[in-house]
Hints:
Chain A is an alpha+beta fold. Chain A has helices at 2-7, 9-16, 68-80, and strands at 24-26, 30-31, 41-43, 46-47, 51-53, 89-102, 108-123.
Amino acid sequence: DTGTLAHDLPGYLRDQGxxxxxCSLRSFPVxxxxxxxxxxxxxxxxxNPRYCKGACPHLLRYDYHAPNxxxxxxxxxxxxxxxxxxxxxxxxxxxPISVLMIxxxxxxxxxxxxxxxxxxxxxx
Amino acid sequence: DQSLPPPGSLPAxxxxxxxxxxxxxxxxxxxxxxxxxxxxxxxxxxxxxxxxADREGRPRHGRSLGTNTVRLVQASSPGGPPxxxxxxxxxxxxxxxxxSETEHLLxxxxxxxxxxxxxxxxxxxxxxxxxxxxxxxxxxSPAARPRHGWAEADVTPYLMQGNGSAGSLALQHVxxxxxxVGSRDAPVALSHPFLLLYLNDTQAGxxxxxxxxxxxxx
Lengths: 124, 218
Protein backbone atom coordinates (compact mmCIF):
# COMPACT_ATOMS: atom_id res chain seq x y z
CA ASP A 1 0.00 0.00 0.00
CA THR A 2 2.10 2.84 -1.26
CA GLY A 3 -0.30 5.39 0.16
CA THR A 4 0.29 4.04 3.65
CA LEU A 5 4.02 3.88 3.10
CA ALA A 6 4.11 7.53 2.08
CA HIS A 7 1.88 8.47 5.00
CA ASP A 8 4.18 6.64 7.42
CA LEU A 9 7.35 8.12 6.01
CA PRO A 10 8.20 10.45 8.93
CA GLY A 11 7.75 7.64 11.46
CA TYR A 12 9.62 5.21 9.26
CA LEU A 13 12.61 7.50 8.97
CA ARG A 14 12.61 8.04 12.75
CA ASP A 15 12.47 4.30 13.43
CA GLN A 16 15.32 3.47 11.11
CA GLY A 17 17.74 5.70 13.01
CA UNK A 18 20.51 4.08 11.04
CA UNK A 19 22.09 7.17 9.61
CA UNK A 20 25.53 5.59 9.88
CA UNK A 21 24.61 2.63 7.74
CA UNK A 22 22.59 4.67 5.27
CA CYS A 23 23.89 5.36 1.82
CA SER A 24 26.28 8.25 2.26
CA LEU A 25 29.53 9.80 1.11
CA ARG A 26 32.67 8.53 2.87
CA SER A 27 36.10 10.06 2.88
CA PHE A 28 39.06 8.01 1.68
CA PRO A 29 42.29 9.95 1.15
CA VAL A 30 44.99 8.21 -0.81
CA UNK A 31 48.36 9.34 -2.05
CA UNK A 32 49.38 9.04 -5.65
CA UNK A 33 52.30 6.98 -4.37
CA UNK A 34 49.79 4.39 -3.10
CA UNK A 35 48.21 4.31 -6.55
CA UNK A 36 51.63 3.91 -8.14
CA UNK A 37 51.36 7.15 -10.07
CA UNK A 38 53.78 9.36 -8.15
CA UNK A 39 56.42 9.01 -10.86
CA UNK A 40 53.99 10.79 -13.13
CA UNK A 41 51.67 13.01 -11.10
CA UNK A 42 53.67 15.44 -8.98
CA UNK A 43 50.78 17.51 -7.58
CA UNK A 44 48.66 17.14 -5.60
CA UNK A 45 50.38 14.59 -3.37
CA UNK A 46 47.15 13.42 -1.85
CA UNK A 47 43.82 12.75 -3.45
CA ASN A 48 40.46 12.06 -1.85
CA PRO A 49 38.22 10.46 -4.45
CA ARG A 50 35.70 9.56 -1.67
CA TYR A 51 33.16 6.82 -2.14
CA CYS A 52 29.52 5.97 -1.48
CA LYS A 53 28.55 3.21 0.86
CA GLY A 54 25.55 2.11 2.87
CA ALA A 55 22.07 0.74 2.56
CA CYS A 56 19.49 2.47 0.47
CA PRO A 57 16.35 3.12 2.53
CA HIS A 58 13.20 1.24 1.64
CA LEU A 59 11.62 4.59 0.96
CA LEU A 60 13.90 6.77 -1.05
CA ARG A 61 13.94 10.27 0.29
CA TYR A 62 14.29 13.35 -1.87
CA ASP A 63 17.90 13.94 -0.77
CA TYR A 64 18.96 10.70 -2.44
CA HIS A 65 18.36 12.26 -5.86
CA ALA A 66 16.94 8.88 -6.85
CA PRO A 67 15.24 8.78 -10.24
CA ASN A 68 11.68 7.49 -10.45
CA UNK A 69 13.02 4.20 -11.74
CA UNK A 70 14.87 3.57 -8.48
CA UNK A 71 11.66 4.15 -6.53
CA UNK A 72 9.85 1.65 -8.72
CA UNK A 73 12.70 -0.86 -8.44
CA UNK A 74 12.57 -0.72 -4.65
CA UNK A 75 8.83 -1.47 -4.77
CA UNK A 76 9.42 -4.31 -7.23
CA UNK A 77 11.98 -5.82 -4.86
CA UNK A 78 9.72 -5.41 -1.86
CA UNK A 79 6.37 -6.35 -3.35
CA UNK A 80 6.93 -8.39 -6.49
CA UNK A 81 10.23 -10.25 -6.70
CA UNK A 82 13.10 -10.14 -4.22
CA UNK A 83 15.47 -11.32 -6.95
CA UNK A 84 15.34 -7.80 -8.32
CA UNK A 85 17.91 -6.02 -6.13
CA UNK A 86 17.46 -2.89 -4.10
CA UNK A 87 18.78 0.21 -5.76
CA UNK A 88 22.52 0.55 -5.18
CA UNK A 89 24.30 3.32 -3.33
CA UNK A 90 26.46 5.04 -5.96
CA UNK A 91 27.97 8.50 -6.59
CA UNK A 92 25.57 11.08 -7.99
CA UNK A 93 27.64 14.17 -8.51
CA UNK A 94 31.38 14.57 -9.07
CA UNK A 95 33.88 17.37 -9.14
CA PRO A 96 37.07 17.64 -11.17
CA ILE A 97 40.66 17.46 -10.06
CA SER A 98 43.66 19.43 -11.30
CA VAL A 99 46.93 17.56 -11.63
CA LEU A 100 50.45 18.48 -12.54
CA MET A 101 52.26 15.81 -14.50
CA ILE A 102 55.70 15.10 -15.85
CA UNK A 103 55.68 13.47 -19.25
CA UNK A 104 57.99 11.05 -20.99
CA UNK A 105 59.61 13.80 -23.03
CA UNK A 106 60.29 15.92 -19.94
CA UNK A 107 57.39 18.28 -20.62
CA UNK A 108 55.29 19.47 -17.70
CA UNK A 109 51.55 19.36 -18.03
CA UNK A 110 48.71 20.94 -16.04
CA UNK A 111 45.41 19.20 -16.66
CA UNK A 112 41.91 19.15 -15.20
CA UNK A 113 40.15 15.80 -15.24
CA UNK A 114 36.42 15.61 -14.77
CA UNK A 115 34.54 13.22 -12.48
CA UNK A 116 37.46 12.48 -10.16
CA UNK A 117 35.95 13.31 -6.74
CA UNK A 118 32.55 12.04 -5.61
CA UNK A 119 30.48 14.88 -4.17
CA UNK A 120 27.20 13.20 -3.27
CA UNK A 121 25.49 9.82 -3.40
CA UNK A 122 22.28 8.45 -4.79
CA UNK A 123 20.34 5.21 -4.82
CA UNK A 124 20.10 3.79 -8.31
CA ASP B 1 15.13 -5.32 -36.12
CA GLN B 2 15.13 -2.23 -38.31
CA SER B 3 15.12 0.07 -35.31
CA LEU B 4 18.69 -0.96 -34.48
CA PRO B 5 21.37 1.36 -35.87
CA PRO B 6 23.80 -0.16 -38.37
CA PRO B 7 27.00 -1.42 -36.71
CA GLY B 8 29.08 1.39 -38.17
CA SER B 9 27.08 4.03 -36.35
CA LEU B 10 27.22 2.46 -32.92
CA PRO B 11 28.65 4.83 -30.34
CA ALA B 12 32.34 4.37 -29.71
CA UNK B 13 33.57 3.12 -26.38
CA UNK B 14 33.69 6.16 -24.09
CA UNK B 15 37.28 7.37 -23.71
CA UNK B 16 39.00 7.19 -20.36
CA UNK B 17 41.25 10.25 -20.57
CA UNK B 18 43.22 9.64 -17.40
CA UNK B 19 43.99 6.03 -18.24
CA UNK B 20 44.78 6.90 -21.84
CA UNK B 21 47.22 9.54 -20.66
CA UNK B 22 48.74 7.06 -18.25
CA UNK B 23 49.24 4.57 -21.04
CA UNK B 24 50.50 6.93 -23.72
CA UNK B 25 52.24 9.84 -22.06
CA UNK B 26 53.30 8.82 -18.58
CA UNK B 27 56.93 7.93 -18.06
CA UNK B 28 57.53 4.29 -17.24
CA UNK B 29 57.57 3.66 -13.53
CA UNK B 30 60.66 1.46 -13.82
CA UNK B 31 63.86 3.38 -13.32
CA UNK B 32 62.30 6.79 -13.73
CA UNK B 33 61.61 9.20 -10.94
CA UNK B 34 60.38 12.75 -11.05
CA UNK B 35 63.22 14.60 -9.40
CA UNK B 36 62.69 16.99 -6.54
CA UNK B 37 61.00 20.26 -7.39
CA UNK B 38 63.87 22.05 -9.01
CA UNK B 39 64.51 23.98 -12.13
CA UNK B 40 62.78 27.12 -13.20
CA UNK B 41 60.18 25.47 -15.47
CA UNK B 42 59.05 23.15 -12.70
CA UNK B 43 58.96 25.97 -10.15
CA UNK B 44 56.90 28.07 -12.53
CA UNK B 45 54.39 25.25 -13.12
CA UNK B 46 54.11 24.51 -9.40
CA UNK B 47 53.28 28.20 -8.84
CA UNK B 48 50.73 28.07 -11.61
CA UNK B 49 49.26 24.91 -10.08
CA UNK B 50 49.01 26.39 -6.56
CA UNK B 51 47.27 29.41 -8.02
CA UNK B 52 44.74 27.29 -9.90
CA ALA B 53 44.05 24.43 -7.45
CA ASP B 54 43.90 23.80 -3.71
CA ARG B 55 45.97 21.25 -1.75
CA GLU B 56 43.62 18.42 -2.67
CA GLY B 57 43.70 19.36 -6.31
CA ARG B 58 40.27 20.96 -6.54
CA PRO B 59 40.26 23.77 -9.10
CA ARG B 60 39.83 27.07 -7.26
CA HIS B 61 36.68 28.98 -8.10
CA GLY B 62 37.36 32.32 -9.70
CA ARG B 63 40.99 31.48 -10.43
CA SER B 64 40.42 29.52 -13.55
CA LEU B 65 43.21 29.43 -16.07
CA GLY B 66 40.53 29.75 -18.73
CA THR B 67 41.27 26.30 -20.06
CA ASN B 68 41.68 22.71 -18.90
CA THR B 69 45.21 22.08 -20.16
CA VAL B 70 48.49 23.97 -19.94
CA ARG B 71 51.48 22.35 -21.53
CA LEU B 72 55.04 23.48 -20.88
CA VAL B 73 57.44 22.84 -23.74
CA GLN B 74 61.16 23.06 -23.10
CA ALA B 75 63.56 24.34 -25.70
CA SER B 76 66.33 22.49 -27.39
CA SER B 77 69.40 24.41 -28.46
CA PRO B 78 72.36 23.67 -30.68
CA GLY B 79 75.69 23.14 -28.95
CA GLY B 80 78.37 25.78 -28.78
CA PRO B 81 79.14 28.52 -26.28
CA PRO B 82 76.44 31.19 -26.36
CA UNK B 83 78.63 33.80 -24.66
CA UNK B 84 80.73 36.27 -26.64
CA UNK B 85 82.16 38.82 -24.21
CA UNK B 86 79.26 40.62 -22.56
CA UNK B 87 76.73 39.26 -24.97
CA UNK B 88 74.78 36.01 -24.84
CA UNK B 89 72.93 34.76 -27.90
CA UNK B 90 71.25 31.38 -28.02
CA UNK B 91 68.97 29.96 -30.69
CA UNK B 92 66.11 27.98 -29.20
CA UNK B 93 63.78 25.56 -30.90
CA UNK B 94 60.47 24.43 -29.42
CA UNK B 95 59.08 21.26 -30.92
CA UNK B 96 55.30 21.03 -30.99
CA UNK B 97 54.64 17.68 -32.55
CA UNK B 98 53.63 16.06 -29.26
CA UNK B 99 50.20 17.72 -29.20
CA SER B 100 47.18 15.46 -29.25
CA GLU B 101 44.50 15.94 -31.90
CA THR B 102 41.97 16.87 -29.24
CA GLU B 103 44.10 19.71 -27.89
CA HIS B 104 43.23 23.03 -29.50
CA LEU B 105 45.55 25.96 -29.04
CA LEU B 106 43.99 29.00 -27.36
CA UNK B 107 47.07 30.98 -26.41
CA UNK B 108 50.82 30.57 -26.37
CA UNK B 109 53.38 32.51 -24.36
CA UNK B 110 57.10 32.31 -23.85
CA UNK B 111 58.21 32.74 -20.25
CA UNK B 112 61.63 34.17 -19.42
CA UNK B 113 63.51 36.29 -16.92
CA UNK B 114 64.03 39.77 -18.39
CA UNK B 115 66.46 40.74 -15.66
CA UNK B 116 68.80 38.72 -13.49
CA UNK B 117 70.99 39.99 -10.65
CA UNK B 118 74.58 38.82 -10.77
CA UNK B 119 77.36 39.06 -8.21
CA UNK B 120 78.63 41.99 -10.22
CA UNK B 121 76.06 43.92 -12.19
CA UNK B 122 73.02 42.42 -13.81
CA UNK B 123 71.92 40.61 -16.90
CA UNK B 124 69.26 42.06 -19.20
CA UNK B 125 67.54 39.65 -21.55
CA UNK B 126 65.12 39.75 -24.45
CA UNK B 127 63.56 37.35 -26.91
CA UNK B 128 63.39 37.57 -30.66
CA UNK B 129 61.43 35.55 -33.12
CA UNK B 130 64.22 34.06 -35.20
CA UNK B 131 64.60 35.50 -38.67
CA UNK B 132 63.77 33.24 -41.59
CA UNK B 133 64.40 33.51 -45.30
CA UNK B 134 60.92 35.06 -45.68
CA UNK B 135 60.73 37.31 -42.63
CA UNK B 136 63.12 39.32 -40.47
CA UNK B 137 63.44 38.67 -36.74
CA UNK B 138 60.88 40.27 -34.44
CA UNK B 139 61.61 41.51 -30.92
CA UNK B 140 58.94 40.10 -28.61
CA SER B 141 57.32 42.45 -26.10
CA PRO B 142 56.77 41.11 -22.59
CA ALA B 143 53.41 41.41 -20.85
CA ALA B 144 52.96 44.68 -18.99
CA ARG B 145 53.23 43.17 -15.52
CA PRO B 146 55.77 40.42 -15.01
CA ARG B 147 54.84 38.01 -12.17
CA HIS B 148 57.50 37.00 -9.65
CA GLY B 149 60.15 38.38 -11.97
CA TRP B 150 58.93 36.28 -14.89
CA ALA B 151 57.90 37.94 -18.10
CA GLU B 152 55.54 36.40 -20.61
CA ALA B 153 55.63 37.27 -24.27
CA ASP B 154 52.65 36.35 -26.39
CA VAL B 155 53.59 34.22 -29.37
CA THR B 156 50.09 33.06 -30.26
CA PRO B 157 49.96 34.86 -33.62
CA TYR B 158 53.19 33.25 -34.76
CA LEU B 159 51.88 29.77 -34.00
CA MET B 160 48.43 30.45 -35.43
CA GLN B 161 49.86 31.91 -38.64
CA GLY B 162 51.63 28.72 -39.36
CA ASN B 163 55.00 29.13 -37.73
CA GLY B 164 53.96 26.27 -35.49
CA SER B 165 52.44 24.25 -38.27
CA ALA B 166 55.91 23.20 -39.29
CA GLY B 167 56.08 21.53 -35.91
CA SER B 168 58.42 23.95 -34.22
CA LEU B 169 58.95 27.54 -33.13
CA ALA B 170 62.41 29.15 -33.33
CA LEU B 171 63.42 31.99 -31.00
CA GLN B 172 66.61 33.79 -30.17
CA HIS B 173 67.44 34.44 -26.51
CA VAL B 174 69.64 37.50 -26.23
CA UNK B 175 71.21 38.80 -23.00
CA UNK B 176 73.68 41.55 -22.19
CA UNK B 177 75.69 42.07 -19.02
CA UNK B 178 75.09 45.53 -17.63
CA UNK B 179 76.91 47.43 -14.91
CA UNK B 180 80.51 47.08 -13.78
CA VAL B 181 82.00 44.22 -15.67
CA GLY B 182 85.28 42.56 -14.88
CA SER B 183 87.27 40.81 -17.51
CA ARG B 184 87.34 37.66 -15.37
CA ASP B 185 83.57 37.31 -15.09
CA ALA B 186 82.66 33.69 -15.56
CA PRO B 187 79.91 32.95 -18.07
CA VAL B 188 76.57 32.51 -16.34
CA ALA B 189 74.62 29.33 -16.95
CA LEU B 190 71.20 30.58 -18.00
CA SER B 191 68.13 28.42 -18.08
CA HIS B 192 66.27 28.59 -21.33
CA PRO B 193 62.95 30.39 -21.68
CA PHE B 194 60.09 27.94 -21.97
CA LEU B 195 56.95 27.85 -24.04
CA LEU B 196 53.51 27.61 -22.42
CA LEU B 197 50.63 26.33 -24.53
CA TYR B 198 47.15 27.03 -23.18
CA LEU B 199 45.04 24.33 -24.76
CA ASN B 200 41.42 23.32 -24.74
CA ASP B 201 41.27 19.54 -24.65
CA THR B 202 37.94 18.60 -26.13
CA GLN B 203 38.24 14.95 -25.30
CA ALA B 204 35.20 13.79 -23.35
CA GLY B 205 35.83 13.40 -19.68
CA UNK B 206 37.91 16.48 -19.19
CA UNK B 207 36.60 19.13 -16.89
CA UNK B 208 34.28 21.77 -18.24
CA UNK B 209 33.76 25.00 -16.32
CA UNK B 210 32.25 24.02 -12.98
CA UNK B 211 28.56 24.66 -12.77
CA UNK B 212 25.78 23.37 -10.60
CA UNK B 213 23.76 20.59 -12.17
CA UNK B 214 20.23 21.55 -13.01
CA UNK B 215 17.81 19.98 -10.57
CA UNK B 216 14.33 19.29 -11.76
CA UNK B 217 11.35 19.65 -9.47
CA UNK B 218 9.75 16.37 -8.61
